[in-house]
Write a structure and sequence with these properties.
alpha+beta; 174 residues; 46% helix; globular; Arc Repressor Mutant, subunit A; 2 domains; Aminopeptidase; 8 helices; single chain; five-stranded mixed beta sheet
């Protein structure tokens, strides 16, 4: 028997959460009362392969529609979802339309990474865990997690590996 996907909105955390077994995925958003702006999606390749990402975004879009909100897909995952599901495009904000019109994958110029974020991504690229990166840099694992989260948001990355790929493509890493 296949495990059931459970999807819920956690507005106090600013995210929709999908759970399949012990794995979770999150679609992070800002809600200003008029627009739901998806700025990051954290999801494993396994969950994507199991269709969890599409189901997560489907629920998020249905909720936005129910609440009469516009949608701004400010990360590549949300842009790709809305491109593949044109029935959602009537909810796009003007900024959302601009994001959909950018080059494939939704790449857009974002805030530059800090030196600290780059050094943490170098550790991730080397295959290190947060604890190992923290020891190397003399920081706490929580601080590493926070910097990595900021870097992922700036890069519109879905996960750690995706952040490294984008950072390599944009010349932050060699």
């Amino acid at each position: 028997m296949a495990a059931e996907i459970v999807i819920r909105d956690a507005p106090d955390e600013g995210r929709f959460v999908a759970e399949l077994g012990r794995e979770t995925a999150s679609a992070w958003y800002r809600n200003d009362g008029k627009t739901l702006s998806f700025f990051r999606v954290d999801i494993s390749d396994n969950l994507v392969a199991n269709g969890v990402g599409n189901q997560l975004m489907r629920v998020a879009m249905a909720q936005a529609r129910q609440q009469g909100l516009l949608v701004e897909p400010a990360c590549a995952f949300a842009v790709d979802y809305m491109r593949q599901n044109p029935e959602t495009q009537d909810m796009l904000s003007s900024e959302g339309w601009r994001l959909l019109a950018t080059e494939p994958g939704g790449h857009q110029e974002t805030e530059a990474l800090t030196e600290r974020e780059i050094s943490i991504l170098q550790g991730v690229a080397a295959g290190l865990e947060n604890k190992q990166i923290a020891l190397r840099l003399g920081l706490s694992p929580e601080t590493i997690k926070e910097h990595l989260s900021h870097a992922m948001s700036k890069l519109c990355a879905n996960n750690r590996s995706h952040a490294v790929v984008i950072a390599l493509e944009r010349g932050y890493l060699r």
